[in-house]
Amino acid sequence: MSATESAKTSVDTNDSGMAAKDPGKRRRALLIVAGVFILAALLWFLLWFFVLSTRVKTDNAYVGGNQVAISAQVPGTVVAILADDTQHVDAGQVLVKLDGTDADTRLAQARSALAQAVRGVRQQTSSATGADAQVVAARLDLKKAEADLKRRLPLIAAQAESPEIVQHLRDGVAQARAAVNAAEAQAAAAHAAIEGTDVAQNPVVMQARANFRAAWVAAQRNAIYAPVSGYVAERSVQLGNSVQPGQQLMTVVPLHDLWIDANFKESQLRHIRIGQPATVVSDLYGGDAEYHGKVIGLGAGTGSVFSLLPAQNATGNWIKVVQRVPVRIALDNKELDKHPLRIGLSTDVTVDIRHDQGSVLANTPTQQPVAQTDVYDQMASKADAEADRIIRANLSHATAAN
C-alpha cells in the first residue's frame, strides 16, 4: 500500500468516528424516524375518523327473495306441463294441467242443480199466488154463506122457515169459515218459503249457487296457475304423475323485489339503525354494478339460535364464538331491472352509520302486505258471473211467460 492510500484511509476512519460520536446527527435521525411514525399514525387516525368509523362492512351477505311454491289444490293426473326451469312466467299463466273428467262431471251436476233450484223457487212462487187466490175464493164463499143465513133468520122468527134449514145454513157458515182458515194457513206456508227475498236470494237458490261455485272453482283448479310473475325453478312434476293437494310441483322466483341479508358481527351492530343507507356490490358483474339500498330491519336473533341444531352453550367445554345477526337491506327495483340478481348470490355490503339516531327495531306493524296476488280472486269472480248467468237464464222463461 502506498503512503498516499494509507493517509486517505486514516482520514476516512477519523471522520466516521467523529460522525458516530456526533449527538446532533443521531438526534436528527431519531426525529426523522419518529416523524415518520407520527405521520403514519396521523394518516391512520384520519382514515379511521373520516372513513372507517363512518361505515361497517361485511362480505357475509347474500341475496334473498320470495320462493313461491307451486302445488296442486285438487287431486288429479298431470296431462300437460306448460313451463320449465329458467323460463319466465306471468301471474295468472297456466303452469300445469290435470285431467278434468271427474271435475267436469261434478260441475255439470252442480249446474243442473242450480237451474233446478231456480225453477223450484219459481214453482213455489206460483203456488203461493194460487194459494192467495184460494183464500180469496174461500172468503167469498164465507161471505155468501153468512148472507144466506142473515136472510133466513127473520123467517125463523115469523115461523116461516123450518129450524132444520136454518141449522144447515149455520153449518154452511162454519164450514166456509173453516175453509177460509185452511186456505189462509196454506197461503202462509206457501209464502214462508219465498217471502222476504227474490228468487236469486232465496236460501235454496243460494245453497245451490254455493255448490255450483265450489264445483266451478274445483274444475278450474285442474289448471294450476302462477300466482306471481317470475322465473321457474326446481320443477319436479312429470307427465302422468298422480298429484295430491299440497304436493309441490315447481317453484316460481320473482326477481324484482329482492333484498340482502347481511350477517354482521355482534360487535358491528352498535351503530346500525333502520333507515341507514347501504351500498351493495356483487361479484356477478365484477364490481361494475353497485346497488343502493337501505336498512329495513335487524333480525330478532342470531343465526345459531334458528339453526336446525342450536348450540348448547351451557356445557363444560365452551369456546366463545362471535355471533352474527342478519340485517335486512332493501334494494332499488330500478337498479335490479338494470342489473338482475339471483337469490343466494354473495355480496359485499357497506352500511353508512354516520346517522345512528334511528330505531334499532321496528316500532309499528307494517300496513302493506309482504306479498299479494289477485289470481284466485279473479277465479272466484268468474265463478260468480257464471252462476248469475245460469240464474238469469232460468228466470227469463218466467219473465217471457208473464
Assigned CATH class of one domain = Mainly Alpha
Major sheet: 6 strands, antiparallel, barrel
Summing up helix and strand content along with how strands pair, one would put the structural category as alpha+beta
Residue share in helix: 40-55%
Mean pLDDT: 81
Q: What fraction strand?
A: 15-25%
Order of helices and strands: HHEEEEEHHHEEEEEEEEHEH
Number of DSSP helical runs: 7
Between the first and last Cα atoms, what is the distance in angstroms? 147 Å
Overall shape: it is: elongated
Examine the coordinates and then state which fold CATH places here, giving the name of the CATH topology of one domain.
Answer: Helix Hairpins
Q: Give the beta-strand count.
A: 14
How do the strands of the widest beta sheet line up side by side? Answer: 1-10-13-12-11-14
Corresponding CATH architecture of one domain: Orthogonal Bundle
- Return residue spans where pLDDT drops below 50 for at least 5 consecutive residues: none
Radius of gyration: 46 Å
Provide keyphrases for this structure:
about 45% helix; Elongation Factor Tu (Ef-tu), domain 3; 14 strands; EmrA/FarA_HH; AaeA-lik-b-barrel; alpha+beta; six-stranded antiparallel beta barrel
What's this entry about, in short?
With 402 residues, the protein is of the alpha+beta class.
Protein architecture, described:
46% of the residues lie in helices and 20% in strands. 18% of the residues are buried. It is elongated and about 170 Å long. The strands form three sheets. A six-stranded antiparallel barrel has the order 1-10-13-12-11-14. Strands 2-9-7-4 form a four-stranded antiparallel beta sheet, with no helix packed on it. It starts with a helix and ends with a helix. The chain has 402 residues and is of the alpha+beta class.
